[in-house]
Amino acid sequence: MGKGMECSENSQTNMKVIHGEAGYVLEDVPHLTDFLPDLPTFQNPLQFNPAYSVVKQYFVNVDDSVAQKIVVHKDSPRGVHFRRTGPRQKIYFDSDEVHACIVTCGGLCPGLNTVIREIVCGLYHMYGVNKILGIDGGYRGFYAKNTVPLTPKIVDDIHKRGGTILGTSRGGHDTSKIVDSIQDRGINQVYIIGGDGTQKGAAVIFEEIRRRGLKVAVAGIPKTIDNDIPVIDKSFGFDTAVEEAQRAINAAHVEAGSFENGLGVVKLMGRYSGFIAMYATLASRDVDCCLIPESPFYLEGKGGLFEYIEKRLKENGHMVIVIAEGAGLDLLSESFQNTDLKDASGNKLLPDVGLWLSQRIKDYFSGQQKMVINLKHIDPTYMIRAIPGNASDNVYSTLLSHSAVHGAMAGYTGFVVGPVNGRHAMIPFNRITEKQNKVVITDRMWARVLASTNQPSFLNPKDFIEKEEPQTQTQLEDGGKY
Ligand SMILES: Nc1ncnc2c1ncn2[C@@H]1O[C@H](COP(=O)(O)OP(=O)(O)OP(=O)(O)O)[C@@H](O)[C@H]1O
Ligand SMILES: O=P(O)(O)OC[C@H]1O[C@](O)(CO)[C@@H](O)[C@@H]1O
Ligand SMILES: [Mg+2]
């Protein structure tokens, strides 16, 4: 810890927070020495690695941190920081001692296999680790299935395939059985790849490991096609998903443009966050209306969706609507009985909004409007999720994997890796799991979507203006990322 720093631990969240000068705050991650103070250290073998020994500054300074906010005013406090990732001079595991395991949980996401590959190759090539196990089929694989040995040869070309070679699942998180399995197998590094639910599971695994006083590092790699993980810039697979969504939007546009009053409805993923729909819309420019969970809308009456569709068809002869799977749930609940069905992880099962919207539009225009429309509904959701990562996601996945490996080798634990303002950092679990990342509809990014599609905002601007204080300066809100 640097000079003039004060460290405190919040007993409720177990968070290590370090305060420095001028309002500097480091939301630190746990280290194995917090509960095992006498661990021996080792020289990092990377200094002898031909790839790294030519790099001038290959070890990061122990005090390096990454700022959460980079837009500041001259009198702003320095604000919250996270510990920077990267190789450390001193490590807490001897290469021969490491017995690592990797597990993938939750839904599929492009780039999962790249992350697995790069953890295996990173451990092997950078740190000389050769005992690495794959856990089969998500959390329950720890106690209900056999493990798969992983070597650079086995994972050599898996990044070219979609899905996860380890398999995945929802539900089945039994903390004590999982930690028993880790302990019984002599595993001392656990790499957990998954979304918000998975990282909640990883946090309780870490707590149990700490309670038992085991020398086991737990590292989370955030995975979510929905981009709903907070703090980090974006999640891997998201770019690929946005790119792949273009094919569906193009098809919808071609279909719509070829028929009189052609209407293409494309459903994209996004349970609670409409990032894929928002970015796919902005990227495409062929979309006339983007509907996301964060922005309420209505169908009938003045300023409603039906009125807009009619206007657009009259003006342009065709239109494309992109709808995220969690959009308009309040409207759907009027048509569907609230069954409250959940998946094995406890996530609410949503009715099919694409089908519902398409039917409502057809009913409206075949009813009182007497306007013949040609509607094509495209649902590419699983096709988008099941492909391999694109080039930029593959590079990104490599950085994430290496960050996790460097962090675990350096004895950090109970952390999630990810880029914060473009620099990779280790973030405590609770910062990742306490809330979901959502599109902020009062941000400029959503305004860009509205400006690009010309769709109605479905909101009364007075609702916003009257509630807000007059602003003299740019507000430095959390949401103002884009
Ligand atoms: N609160 C929790 N505590 C412990 N384990 C959890 C918790 N929430 C979810 N899990 C476990 O994490 C795993 C994955 O959770 P979930 O199915 O919600 O997917 P996810 O990780 O959120 O990914 P995504 O939503 O992107 O598909 C499951 O095995 C589930 O049992
Ligand atoms: O059908 P499954 O496997 O539960 O996955 C669907 C969900 O997974 C996600 O892609 C998140 O991984 C959500 O967008 C979607 O609601
Ligand atoms: Mg989730």
Automatic annotation (TrEMBL):
Q: Name one GO biological process term.
A: fructose 6-phosphate metabolic process
For this record, the Gene Ontology CC terms, alphabetical, are:
cytosol
Catalytic residues at 226
Which positions bind substrate? 224-226, 269-271, 325, 382-385
Query: Which residues of the sequence carry a binding annotation for ATP?
Result: 107, 170-171, 195-198
Q: Which residues form the Phosphofructokinase domain?
A: 101-406
Residue positions binding Mg(2+): 196
**Main subcellular location:** cytoplasm
Record's catalysed reaction(s): beta-D-fructose 6-phosphate + ATP = beta-D-fructose 1,6-bisphosphate + ADP + H(+)
Domain of life of the organism in this record? Eukaryota
Q: Where is this site: Important for substrate specificity?
A: 197
Keywords of this protein's UniProt record, alphabetized? Allosteric enzyme, ATP-binding, Cytoplasm, Glycolysis, Kinase, Magnesium, Metal-binding, Nucleotide-binding, Transferase
EC number, as in UniProt: 2.7.1.11
Q: Which cofactor does it need?
A: Mg(2+)
The cellular location(s) given in this protein's UniProt record come to:
Cytoplasm
Write down the Pfam families for this protein, in alphabetical order.
Answer: PFK (PF00365)
Any one GO molecular-function label of the UniProt entry: metal ion binding
Which pathway does the UniProt entry assign to this protein?
Answer: Carbohydrate degradation; glycolysis; D-glyceraldehyde 3-phosphate and glycerone phosphate from D-glucose: step 3/4
How its function is modulated: the record gives: Allosterically activated by AMP.
InterPro entries per record: ATP_PFK, PFKA, Phosphofructokinase_dom, PKF_sf, PyroP-dep_PFK_TP0108
Q: Which family does it belong to?
A: Belongs to the phosphofructokinase type A (PFKA) family. PPi-dependent PFK group II subfamily. Atypical ATP-dependent clade 'X' sub-subfamily.
Under the subunit heading, UniProt states: Homotetramer.
What does it do? Catalyzes the phosphorylation of D-fructose 6-phosphate to fructose 1,6-bisphosphate by ATP, the first committing step of glycolysis.
Q: What is this protein called?
A: ATP-dependent 6-phosphofructokinase
Organism per entry = Quercus lobata (Valley oak)
